[in-house]
Specification:
The protein has 183 residues and is an alpha+beta fold. It has five helices and eight strands; from the N terminus they run H-E-E-E-E-H-E-H-E-H-E-E-H.
């Protein structure tokens, strides 16, 4: 009986030590994560609901060939950047709705789907399945997502016709958000 009681105490102590390590690890990660959100000169970050911040330019390979450069729309069209991935259930729900807005407003607003580091063959199948017609850019090394401070999928950045960031939208985008770019 004595041995059994010592084994139970040993297991409790081991569990407590593991729990402490987990909590310390979470704390260190959270602290590191917070410090990485500071704005730096080399990596512009998008502030939510901001104005007059020039959107970081980029050139990315397009899914259908060629390249897409954000600056090519400056002075011509407002832009919605949609950061997404094929495995994202929120993207699966949101992208077809965003495509409907794109079809309705494509003469005035460009939508660019920025895929986050996935294989081209998987992206092609998903885009076809979801019926998406707006341009898809391949952020194969994550540099554009990093420049915009994107931490998760289904994240949108609204950019006005002059190239300024109007708003960052974590989560689903609405038609009211699209109309904000028209005003």
């Amino acid at each position: 009986m004595q041995k059994s009681s010592n084994e139970k105490n040993s297991k409790k102590i081991t569990s407590a030590v593991i729990l402490v390590f987990i909590l310390v690890g979470i704390s260190l990660y959270a602290t590191r994560d917070r410090s990485s959100t500071n704005t730096s000169a080399t990596t512009p970050r998008v502030e939510k609901n901001t104005s007059s911040q020039l959107a970081p330019d980029f050139s990315l390979e397009r899914l259908d060939g060629g390249t897409i450069t954000l600056a090519e729309y400056r002075g011509r069209k407002a832009v919605v950047l949609d950061f997404w991935a094929t495995w994202c259930p929120n993207c699966q729900r949101s992208m077809p709705k965003l495509n409907t807005f794109y079809e309705k407003y494509k003469d005035e607003i460009e939508v660019i789907g920025v895929n986050l580091r996935e294989k081209t063959s998987l992206i092609e199948k998903t885009i076809e399945k979801w019926g998406v017609t707006f341009p898809i850019a391949l952020d194969s090394n994550g540099s554009v997502a990093q420049a915009y401070g994107v931490r998760y999928t289904n994240f949108h950045v609204l950019i006005d016709k002059e190239g300024n960031i109007v708003k960052a939208i974590p989560g689903d985008i609405s038609e009211a958000d699209i109309k904000l770019l028209l005003d």
